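Budget justification, computational time. The allocation requested in the original proposal was used primarily to generate structure tokens for proteins on the priority list. As evidence of use, we reproduce two of the resulting records. The first is shown immediately below.
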Amino acid sequence: MSKPPLLVHLIFHPASADARELARTIHGALNADPAVPGLRVPTVFCPTDGIAPPGHYDLDEAERSLAVVLADAWVVDRDSGQERTWSRFIGDIWDACRGTPHRFFPVQLHPAAWGFDDRLGGTNFVRAFAEADQAARDALVVRRLVIELCRELRDWDSLQEPSVEAKGPVALFLSHTKLDMEVEPRVTSALIDYLKHDQPVRAWVDAGDIDAGSPFAEAIERGIDDSSLLCVLTDNYSTREWCRKEIILAKQHQRPVVVVAAFSRQEVRSFPYLGNVPVLRWPCIPPDQSEAQKAAVNRASAVAAVDLLLKETLRYLHATVLLKAVAHQGDLISARPPELLSLLQARGAKTVLYPDPPLGAEELALLSETRVPTTTPLSRLAAERPLQGAQIALSMSQSTDILRFGFDEVHLEGAMVELSRYLLLKGATLVYGGHLGDEGYTQVLFELVRAHHCLEGVDRVERIVNTVGWPLPYGQELVARYSLVARLQHIPRPGDLDACPGKAVADAVEANPFPPDQSPEHRYCWARGMTRMREAQAAKDGGIAARIILGGRFGPPGEGPGSDERWYAGRVPGVLEEVVLSARAGQPVFLIGAFGGAATLAIDLLEGRERSEATWDYQRRAPNAEAMRTLYDRCGQVWWDYPEMVQLLRGTGAAAINPLLSEAENRELFHTRNVARMIELILKGLGNLSAAAGR
């Protein structure tokens, strides 16, 4: 998959903290909603270089892009006299979407943020500024965006021509029984009232059918291929033949279903085919509440139920498109985990392919009685384990200038997790030098290992080697705590520290590795410990087959939005040191440049571009840097200077830094923003390890 099928571009002025926070909220809603764990729609932010808009913007990174413009007062600069203005840039984005598969989705966050470019005069903006409450505003924007994405994905296969738009609405059907219509808290009435009067886009709800109060059996039979079903599960629901039929029809036609559990007392018999779908509990309202309080609770609950169904519909549609892209011949695509009902229909299919995560062993054992094979993309990947026993070092950390590349830390963390998951499934042992605290990427790695221990057919092998460099905490208690997921490899304190700067200083650093204020001596000791750890990882006899690099601090990149003013703690930027040590040892290095940081700094040096950050004049501004360098001289330790590191990387070049890939593939990895493509290239290169070892 060279391109993702769908990509959401979140475009906003870099000086707008409000728009940036809304962009993060949107990313979280599309990728980190615990109520819809399988919903993962990729997003990128608009790259920023200071305040000016980008000179060029590429919407063709995906088969279809949705350009979401978060317009507030900052973008209204049409009369500024500048050649490059945000007003013109947004107008250019609108132009770039015309006659293409891409869509323009503008959101008005301020009353003045409309009509700021002549080309946008007839464009309908989402009037988010009309919501006085920020939480309500953000929810409105997310809801409208989810609906628009559903419209894009609903007609995916039928949209062959770029000029054809997805016009059809998302159809919602309310499945309920009239017997419980007037039973408190009158859930069906609350949902109908919300859908009739407050639906955000009227075209996507069949309001006429809802107003009639019928169970919609005939409507579902007519339009089952294009509907999402919201089931109001009340006491008498499962006793009604047409209600049961609606659920069976929806599942037989593989439609999105959400259940609202709204019992007043109990069910006599639960309907067995109502499982395997998201369930939302309708809150119980105390009888002493006023009518106004009851109405407020019911309305909030109706909003939550419809929003859940919309997100489940988006997950369903997006998962279907992704599964089709990786399906093998003979696969039957299922957007939800298989169950006995669906497998009865799948007889004759070679395999049922459904989204990750895979079902547990107890369910799979039961489903195997149908003799219909089932799998997920990751389970299928795990069946082939060419990296069994290969140790792959990971250099992944927060990036100094990530916002300048159109990403945020949430994107970096997501890419780190996704890449690590694929490496684990391919059988690799991951080597990572990180702190064993309660937070951070190390703990994420351990959770991945615990999760994949449960995968059917995946052996329990050594999955993580955590290199604990002095002065990071280490002891038998930590060894025991992580024994099931990792082997801790301790790199002891460099012996020369006892002589210079002195045993008392080194003991103090070991007792308190993270003081609020670091002295030059503390930073010197820390740097020596971290360099020793990195040298051990890069040693030819260390067993590491390759290293993967992304992110990394290198010091403040300057003024303006996206600048991270925090410095690194060692002698030089840690990720940069890992790159040069691996390059000097001839260790293949996969460099991912999409997220900026020290990885991109190394790429620029490899490709011959000058970077002021790779000079002592720049790095001497780090806290206690000059005093630390003096300690290197006084203690007789070699100071590997920046000109030497630059010369080493320039002499290595883009082709030789990683002989497991071609030069063109290396350069693609340097610059692609498509996480799926990054993983493809890395797995392809690592697949050449055995051939490289033979040479």
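The second record produced under the same allocation is shown here.
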Amino acid sequence: MKIRSIALAIALMTANNLLAQQLTLRADNIDEVLQAMTLKEKVRLLVGRNNDHGESGVPGAAGVTQAIPRLGIPALVLTDGPAGVRISPTRSGTKQTFYATGFPVGTALACTWNPALVKQIGQAIGNEVLEYGCDVLLAPGMNIQRTPLCGRNFEYYSEDPVVTGVMAAAYVNGVQSNGVGTSIKHFAVNSQETNRIEVSEVVSQRALREIYLRGFELAVTTASPWTVMSSYNRINGIWTQSSHDLLSTILRDEWGYKGIVMTDWTNEHRSSYDRVAAGNNLLAPGYDWQEADIIRHVDKGDLDIATVNARVRQMLELIVKTPHFRNYKYTNHPDLEAHAQLTRQSAAEGMVLLKNQNQTLPLQGVKSIALFGNTSYNFIAGGTGSGDVHKPYVVDLKTGLAHAGFIIDRDLQTVYERSQAYNDGLRQLGNGSRMGEQNFDRCVIERLALRNDLAIITIGRQAGEAYDRQVANDFDMTQTERELLSNVCNAFHAVHKKVVVILNMGNAMETASWKGMPDAILMAWQPGQEGGNSVADVITGKSTPSGKLAMTFPVMASDIPAVNNFPTGTGVKQGDSRRNIDYTLHEEDIYVGYRYFTTFGQPVSYPFGYGLSYTTFSYSKPVVQAVGNGFRASIVVTNTGKVPGKEAVQLYVSAPAKQLAKPLRELKAFGKTQLLQPGQSERLYFQVSTYDLASFVSSSSEWQTEPGRYSVQFGASSEDIRAQATYTQKKLWTKRVRNVMAPNHPLKLIR
């Protein structure tokens, strides 16, 4: 009898093994596959691997998940973004190239104020993800531009969470329309690159909820990104990657997120099991020791197997949506020509005309141009680090102007291209910071002024991953740049000729001290591979500028309260607890960007939302109607000028401040017209919910929309309100949430 029982048990085990061997993952048998997985296989699925040697078949991709062939579970390929697909352009054994389109950086896209256009860009990038054999794009970057000194601001959208969330959602929807995924990042409060892996960002619960998480919430709830990337840093002393409050309570329980969470590329020997417990599904890039760490803590009972199963199930739910699971036969031939045209168009729409004295632009009667600035001849298409893209080419400004029919002063061009300063500048750009510049003898500049119709000076800045910008000689002009600008303006103005400045950078810079000198200033950003052509399109009038700033340009860096709590390279002392290095205090609280400048009356050089056009627009017939749980607003925009153009309208709200201090005004929605012909009108509509109007009350851990009259303001910028109406909230509206993530350090908040 005993022998018969043993035989039966062996037979059952054999049958189960055979059944498991026959199992192949499908969308409808995830639970069955999960039950058949061993603990080792489950943990294997939670720990990724680097892609240093191109094991995925896509050299240069950032990482992979691990396959489990026994159950038909393929490996997935993860590739960096967000300005395009970051893979190696060449491969051994073939002469084919694998370049990806270099699109405008995040700041440039945000300044289009055009979510429909950003969705188109996402669709194009997603197509390259798909056709180059990848599954998930590690983008978009969504961190708030707390100061203009953060090294990765070029990847991010704005100082405002509404702009950030709406643009990110458009990008996500575009990319994922191809059947590939995105990973919104870096969740959350990755506000500086200095010591980014260790720094604790100390922030109030109100600022955390209203400023740093709101954009992520918008993207999660309106676009359903396949993945979210947990950031390196700590928030209020707790690693974000180990924060159950952030990754589970807020992200999953409160926002209803159903996708997976992956860590940023962490190689420190931190505990791994607690990151799985907190809410991460994938540890990236992934190491053997992490698998052993998780298994050991499951065996010890520190990590519940039910938690592991939940994380694995979510991974399987992701995998069955991917191209590799579908056995998609990718071509390695996306339509790069069509995408180049899209990047040229989108870059032009994101450029911001900051100054245009006496209608200097669009250029008329200009044939020959004296082109100054090293960056004119080596245009900066994008930032450095994981946000860079291996592009097939970059159209520099010299070439773009030549394509538009202008004659570039040959002698001046030769001086730049043969100079040591130019070559030194190229090396500097590889590491970030500014490009080296040179000045010229005044007599030389005067001769150039006599024989050319116009001067253009390009000022370039570079930044990137793992380091932040400095104020001196970076945010501020260098002395050489200032002297060059002064000398060129003096010489050309003396013979009644004009000077145009092109700003080629991914971030704001100081402009107040010098903007009076040139006749026109165009912020071109880092506009992608077609940048020189895009600038030429704008300054010739082929494209009417419609970009507006998604961040404030202060008079001085020190005017920004957050700069007082930011690693600017001065006053840093070594020790176990270094302010702005080991911890950074967000004492400006909710008063980030324009919220501070408008509320406290601090003058700026260019306000949030500012941007000139070659035409003019009027705003009329404002309407605000209570609809459901909130209101619907609308405004008529009319092109009152002489050329076609688009106008971005910003909807601000000034709220009652009976119980809680509020900013003077806050952006709640925005919209952009179609291309309006002279005399043509369009009514734009905006929907704002009661929740959109709410402020966070930390003492009761709830969102509150106070009763009273709300001023609804239609603005051309945060300081240029063109029309107003009112909305009345009849009673107090509240939404209670969990009391989590309180500061671990005293904060002297601005009030």
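A brief technical remark on that second record: The longest strand covers residues 617-626.
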